């Protein structure tokens, strides 16, 4: 059987494109021919990677250059966090418009795949792997008569809770029961899952469509490893053809461009484990009271810090920058994976996006958790209660003194770092020779090869 040719199609958002890119690199390093197709918005977010990608002989980059239609203003997926609860207002985002626009590109995707099939000296595609956010891609795979696999980018725990709780009439009660009994989590309220907050019918419908879509997939790929989310993975495996392949951020050699390395040279000059790294990912934007209280909390912790503020510092309390500049660096963007790998990092103040969480797990960095929306509250619970490598800012009124206290608790907790080191070892060995994710990759390569054989003999 020859090497399979797989098309990968990520949802065009930074937190989705990056792990799909990591998946592409892992598959290519295992001998698959990979075509990475990026929609316009995703393409705009990855300019520094496109050149790099084309350097791998069996990995090609293709750009689905259909613009975002039906948009009235510039598209932004930013989630503004400005009320005192510290949670973001997702309803205000452009997500529904983006979904509609992407779905309207179905025939363009089909045409691109057909054209690419004829143009390359590679075997024909035998499989389309697309993000679970785009269940409509199943029909594209069907028309092209290739296998369809789904890549679920959030955690397995989130997937499990969504599959079980969403369709349930008594969703809140069901969620609480599932979390307690099956996963072993004790949430103070079901709200922390942000699944029970899906009052907006459109958001609820989108999540339902995603979950329903996975039922059509030949295989569901997860960015986790079996030991990390043991219970959720076991439960899911009873009903779904899943493969845990993560943590995909490990072992690809994917690096950010040189232009971003100022933060790293600043870290080189700092003492080991001395720096608090603060980042809320690529979408959450803190404003107003949450931003102000966070700044005061960081300042009174007296820790030196590296803070990613995509607004560049706008909205910070007066004099904050001047008072802290001797022990701080504020930047709009940093190469986060390399930052977390750096020996100077002592703790990570995070919004608990799944990619950020996995990057911290791989490096064994303790976390201070301030989830803002979506799957992040679930991730926070797992960090606090299952892995016990961090603590969260408690809900309700966001308060500087509370923030200072949690920072100091996490930074001074040697057990968090010890458990973090063990988890880091376990994460790295999952993808090492004979590890669970390595094995799952081998199974996946066999499955792809069988499909390739089937396509070739048709
Ligand atoms: N990231 C980065 N530099 C930054 C901030 C974020 O490289 O300054 C990356 C981070 O490493 C992660 C991704 O952006 O891979 C954020 O994804 P995550 O799932 O954590 O959160 P989201 O952005 O989707 O909310």
Automatic annotation (TrEMBL):
Entries under Gene3D superfamilies matching the protein: Glycogen Phosphorylase B (3.40.50.2000)
PROSITE patterns referenced in this protein's UniProt entry, alphabetically: UDPGT
EC number: 2.4.1.-
Keyword Transmembrane helix among UniProt keywords: no
GO molecular function: quercetin 3-O-glucosyltransferase activity; quercetin 7-O-glucosyltransferase activity
InterPro entries named among the record's database cross-references: UDP_glucos_trans, UDP_glycos_trans_CS
CDD domains, A to Z: GT1_Gtf-like
The entry's keywords: Glycosyltransferase, Transferase
The keyword Transferase is annotated on this UniProt entry: yes
UniProt xrefs under Pfam families: UDPGT
Family classification: Belongs to the UDP-glycosyltransferase family.
Protein name, UniProt field: Glycosyltransferase
Species this protein is from: Adiantum capillus-veneris
């Amino acid at each position: 059987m020859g090497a399979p040719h797989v098309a990968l199609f990520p949802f065009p958002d930074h937190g989705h494109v990056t792990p799909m890119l990591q998946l592409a690199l892992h598959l290519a390093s295992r001998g698959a021919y990979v075509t990475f197709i990026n929609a316009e918005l995703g393409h705009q977010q990855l300019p520094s990677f496109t050149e790099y990608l084309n350097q791998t002989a069996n990995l090609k980059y293709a750009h689905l250059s259909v613009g975002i239609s039906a948009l009235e203003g510039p598209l932004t997926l930013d989630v503004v966090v400005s009320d005192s609860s510290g949670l973001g207002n997702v309803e205000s985002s452009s997500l529904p418009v983006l979904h509609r626009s992407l779905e309207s590109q179905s025939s363009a995707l089909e045409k691109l795949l057909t054209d690419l099939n004829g143009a390359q000296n590679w075997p024909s595609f035998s499989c389309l792997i697309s993000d679970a956010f785009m269940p409509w891609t199943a029909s594209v795979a069907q028309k092209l008569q290739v296998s369809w696999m789904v890549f679920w980018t959030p955690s397995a725990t989130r997937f499990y809770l969504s599959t079980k709780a969403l369709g349930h009439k008594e969703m809140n009660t069901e969620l609480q029961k599932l979390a307690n009994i099956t996963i072993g989590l004790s949430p103070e309220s079901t709200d922390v899952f942000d699944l029970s907050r899906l009052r907006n019918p459109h958001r609820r419908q989108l999540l339902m469509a995603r979950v329903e879509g996975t039922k059509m997939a030949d295989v569901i790929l997860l960015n986790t490893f079996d030991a990390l989310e043991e219970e959720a993975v076991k439960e899911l495996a009873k009903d779904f053809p899943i493969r845990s392949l993560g943590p995909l951020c490990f072992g690809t050699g994917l690096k950010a461009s040189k232009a971003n390395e100022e933060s790293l040279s600043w870290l080189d000059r700092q003492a080991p484990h001395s720096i608090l790294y603060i980042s809320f990912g690529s979408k959450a934007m803190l404003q107003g009271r949450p931003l102000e209280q966070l700044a005061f909390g960081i300042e009174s912790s007296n820790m030196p810090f590296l803070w990613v503020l995509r607004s560049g510092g706008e909205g910070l309390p007066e004099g904050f920058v001047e008072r802290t500049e001797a022990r701080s660096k504020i930047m709009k963007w940093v190469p986060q994976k390399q930052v977390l790998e750096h020996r100077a990092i002592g703790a990570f103040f995070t919004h608990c996006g799944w990619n950020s969480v996995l990057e911290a797990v791989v490096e064994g960095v303790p976390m201070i958790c301030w989830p803002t929306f979506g799957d992040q509250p679930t991730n926070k619970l797992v960090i606090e209660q299952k892995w016990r490598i961090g603590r969260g800012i408690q809900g309700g009124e966001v308060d500087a003194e509370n923030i200072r206290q949690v920072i100091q608790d996490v930074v001074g907790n040697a057990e968090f770092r010890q458990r973090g080191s063990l988890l880091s070892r376990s994460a790295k060995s999952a993808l090492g020779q004979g590890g669970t994710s390595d094995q799952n990759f081998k199974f996946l390569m066999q499955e792809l090869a069988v499909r390739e054989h089937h396509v070739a003999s048709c």
